[in-house]
UniProtKB/TrEMBL annotation:
It is a multi-pass membrane protein. Residues 145-206 form the DUF3772 domain. This is Mechanosensitive ion channel family protein. GO terms for cellular component: plasma membrane. Keywords: Cell membrane, Membrane, Signal, Transmembrane, Transmembrane helix. Residues 1-26 form the signal peptide. It comes from the Bacteria. Belongs to the MscS (TC 1.A.23) family.
Amino acid sequence: MHTFLKMPVMWALLLSLMTGPVTAMAATDAASPAPAANGEPVDPVKINAPAALTALQKRLDTTKQQVATAKTEKKLNALNDDALKLYDDAEKLLTALGPQRAQVQAQLDVLGPAPAAGALPETPEVIRQRNKLNASKTLLDAQIDQASAIRTSAQNLSAQIRGLRRETLKTQIALNSGSILGISFWTPLFSPQDNDVARFDDFGAQVKDAWHQAWQPEWRVGSAIYLLLALAIGVFGRRALDRPLGWMLPRWLPGGRLRRSLLASIATLIIVVSQWLSATLFCQFFVRLPDTSSLLMELANSITVLAVFSALIAGLGSALLSNRHPSWRLPGLADPIAKTLASFPITLAAFIFIFGIVEVLNGLIDSSVAVTLFGNGMSALLVAVNCLIAPMRVNRVRRRLLARGEQPEARSMLAGLIHMAISVTAVVIILALLVGYIPLARFLTYELVWVGLVLTCLYLLIHLVVDFSESFFSPTTYSGKLLKSTLSLNERHLSLAATLFAAVGKTLLVLFAALALLNGTFGTTTPLELLSKVVDIWGGKGLESMNIIPAHAVNAFLFLAVGWYVLRSAKRWLDKDFLPKTMMDRGMRASLVTLFSNVGYVLIILLTLSTLGIEWNRLAWIVSALSVGIGFGLQEIVKNFISGLILLTERPVKVGDLVTISGVEGDIRRINVRATEIQLSDRSTVIVPNSQFISQNVRNATMGNAQGVATITLTFPLDIDPEQVRSLLLACYELHEAVLDTPAPSVSFKELGPTGIVLSVTGYVASPRVVSGTKSDLLYEILKALRAADISLSQTQTMVLEQPVEKQ
């Protein structure tokens, strides 16, 4: 470790030349004469220690206050220098107080202890000297303790500042910390600081002690088992599980796309589980020991998490490329391209794992910022180079295929965008490292890895969910046949269910991926943490300001569905069972059912809003928005709605009435919330807005049980017998069964003119709806009666003008 991290000599010499007022006081105090042989006390405080301690404490408090508000790397660096200077000054004060305390102790030793009871008493002068020396010793001990506390606080403050600087490097991506081509970047590798050397040596000593303890006789067998199992599972675990599963699953699973997506998912899970188990066993090799330090235990936990992330990267790459089984490959990649990319996921996972451990170790041992920057820069550089070489290799293979006359796979626009985004991001990372923006490069590296990991998992899981839905509800599979026979479903229903479940699954996966992208970071976010975040959001945590709780939203949706079903059932019961047993007419029953439905829907909406958590006194914004909406387009809708309510309550027209409005005559079939349906005599339907029934003249032919009038007007020649014709017409009306006896039919003499006699015969029928049919029947009967009586109708006189022919 010393060969890797050695201390610069010039830096040590520079520190040795730093002096201050306290150093001068300590030197003066160290040069003071020794106590006299006769035990005479000397002044125990040669410097103004109380003033120096007060000044040091004030500097410590001021530095702490400034650290609490510091945000930039430059400010934290200056405060760290102040803390180190404070540490040195406190150390110098302790160095100055140490000889004085030793001098007082020496004088007390000369005087000896106080005589025991009953012994020869000391002189008053000796007693006075002993009391004075004890008081001086007590004062010096208190000053030394205070100086030690200030020194320890300054040391801890410096460590905290270094931690803040490391965290600042993660957030201040615009900080220029020096190019990777500069000497300062490589200094931690070739000329490390003395503090870093000591910290790494201490860590190495802890690892060495734990290793030796693990091979002690009482731990030897367990250590060997843990180590062998970790190596065996890490190296051969995937192969041991991959082959039997690859043989069994194709025989158990139905043919189709589910086989590919499920095998890819299981292959990824096998790699993750095997590497996680291997890392856990290896960490237990150290963690199970009773004397394992807390640093090693924290490092072991971090190694396990990093092993899972790295294994997930390698597993996803191996499963999606599927070089062992090309027919199981999900992406449309040619075999040469897939084989070219085979090593890149493993290399990327190795880089992430190694330098992730380095970053965690830097934080645990509290290494310097220079070492942290070196680790971040190297990890960003290697990941960027790996991500840049992969697309270049793919392009080269595609060009070779085209040169040989082979057609590579057709690349979609999305695949091209992903290819370009990876390349551009890798180039930006390398440029940032060359320019000196190492925090920016580290941020882009982790975001590239995290976004790629989340999107790759999303791609695989979406395929799995869609393929599972299609296979589960397929009419050719066992599950689909069972659902079809049990629930009496047809193939159309199974297809709808497959589409619905696939859409819901994809939506949930996309939302979960968005949550992971927005709230997760690589290396620190685990699936359990994401699930915990989902549960928190489900309970409304983080959304309090918007007063949104997803759990309440689901409850509101369930209440809306149940309320809608109950309302439909109650409406059907009223319409089919209860109201037909009353004395109400059909129109009144239809109006009551419609009014009941409208009121029910309003109540359901209000109760749904209440279940959602929206308080009634906070609905002012809804009213305001509705007012604005009415002014910009909802006025007609609201007007028709209010008119519909008036029609249902006042009932100037009702269902079944024969009305005439705006030249349209027909029967009212339904009064809806916004418009009324009128059925014409030709069975066509006219939709009339409800507001027209309120604002326009409406003729209701059936209001108040109105009777219909069948009136026929006929023109007869002047030479007929009017009484005979009158009797004939009345007889035809009286004989027709649809014509009412009361009021009795009548014949009116309407007009007498050159064209003839105009007679009008009128009779009443039960309803206006039968007027047309009755008139048709009466015309048939009247025509037959007139022919039988040899009475003809008047003919229109035609004047023919002839021009005389001129003689030739």
